[in-house]
Design a protein that fits this description.
The structure is a single chain. This protein is of the alpha/beta class. The chain has two domains: 5-143 and 325-362, Nucleotidyltransferase, domain 5 (2-Layer Sandwich), CATH 3.30.420.40; 146-319, ATPase, nucleotide binding domain (Nucleotidyltransferase, domain 5), CATH 3.30.420.40. The protein is built from 13 helices and 13 strands. It has helices spanning 45-53, 61-87, 116-123, 133-137, 146-154, 191-201, 210-213, 219-226, 246-251, 259-281, 298-307, 326-340, 347-350, and strands at 5-11, 18-27, 30-42, 93-96, 99-104, 109-113, 126-129, 161-166, 169-175, 182-188, 287-291, 312-315, 360-362. The longest helix is centred in the first third of the chain and has 27 residues, at 61-87.
Length: 364
């Protein structure tokens, strides 16, 4: 009987909705893990705004960043402690992505906020954090990292699959039957949709795309958005709020557009940027599996289906991992790789010169 190792994966992404925690069990028979239980902690609106403010330079930002890193550690700890109490399982480690506030691989850095020592102290558990910087040090983008897990968990000997994660930023992993795997950020996922919705409705997101469905796509505006230089860059590549943000959305407007029409246009931008990437890089794919918050947007999924009529499109639930918890599960696996002294980056996805053992370890 093989030894079972439990690790909690923590993910809080660009969408700034909250914290996903996944308790995952690993053993020799299940090297990519089995999801045991999960816990979600929603960010309060004030914290979202404070994190957003740190995406740009501002007064006393180092102090503010340190305080937010402490608050995040406390919220992460509360989430993990709740999960541990409910499952009666104390994991061997917590694998924490942290909260991205800057992603500048071209300048040689990326910043994910969390006070990992404080998280270890408040949970009495070893913490693995800072997963991205080692890949950047090796010449990579530091992102996306989840394609390595997609490759380990979902590659099929008879079906050419694509895994699409629609978080704040959308990324895909191309899993051909044979040959090289490829992964990269396609462009905006939910981040522009959420920002525009909040600005005009006061709601944090457009539930099921209902508001966008009330609008009409503005073809000329969509063409301008699709002309963003990022879409022309070759893969592998990574993106963030540095490229896709509300200021950029507004800079392309004439000022007389109906807000719901802009929302409908942004939804098509997300769908088309994903579909165009699949058409360009994954021409032989027969199956597409969706995960992330965008999996709940029915209008977005319908748009994807219309742009990709030849492929079967389903949620990753069909592969055995719920679409809401796949990224947190993936970071638990990345933590397991770290503890085993195994690489966690997929160089075909990040562009690093070699595979690297990722993460910094803060002992319990």
């Amino acid at each position: 009987m093989s030894t079972i190792i439990h690790i909690v994966g923590l993910m809080s992404g660009t969408s700034l909705d909250g914290i996903d925690a996944a308790m995952v069990a690993f053993d020799a028979e299940h090297p990519t893990g089995i999801l045991i239980d999960q816990q979600y902690h929603e960010y309060p609106a004030a914290l979202r705004l404070q994190i957003l403010d740190l995406h740009d330079t501002g007064n006393n930002e180092l102090h503010r960043a340190a305080l937010i890193a402490n608050e995040l550690a406390d919220r992460y700890a509360e989430t993990v402690n709740t999960l541990m109490a409910r499952t009666n399982i104390h994991p061997i480690a917590i694998a924490c992505h942290g909260q991205t506030i800057r992603h500048r691989p071209e300048a040689g850095y990326t910043i994910q906020l969390v006070n990992a020592a404080r998280l270890a102290e408040h949970t009495r558990t070893t913490v693995i954090a800072d997963f991205r910087n080692r890949d950047i040090a090796a010449g990579g983008q530091g992102a996306p990292l989840v394609p390595a897990f997609h490759a380990a968990a979902f590659r099929h000997m008879q079906q050419h699959r694509v895994i699409v994660n629609i978080g704040g930023i959308a990324n895909l992993t191309d899993l051909p039957i044979s040959g090289d795997i490829l992964g990269f950020d396609c462009g905006p996922g939910n981040t522009l949709l959420d920002a525009w919705c909040l600005l005009h409705t006061g709601q944090a997101f457009d539930r099921d795309g209902a508001w966008s469905a009330q609008g009409k796509v503005i073809p000329a505006l969509l063409a301008k958005y699709l002309n963003h230089p990022y879409f022309m860059l070759p893969a592998p590549k990574s993106a963030g709020r540095e490229q896709f943000n509300l200021a950029w959305v507004m800079s392309q407007l004439q000022g007389n557009e109906l807000p719901q029409d802009v929302q409908a246009t942004l939804l098509q931008l997300t769908a088309l940027s994903i579909a165009n990437a699949i058409t360009r890089y994954c021409t032989e794919a027969s199956e597409i599996f969706i995960c992330g918050g965008g999996a709940h947007n029915g209008a977005l999924l319908n748009a994807l289906c219309s742009h990709l009529p030849r492929q079967r499109i389903a949620l990753t639930d069909a592969l055995g991992i719920h679409a809401d918890w796949l990224e947190a599960h993936a970071f638990a696996w990345l933590g397991w790789q770290t503890l085993q002294g195994l690489p966690g980056n997929l160089i075909e996805a990040t562009g690093a010169t070699h595979p690297c053992i990722l993460g910094a370890i803060y002992p319990a």
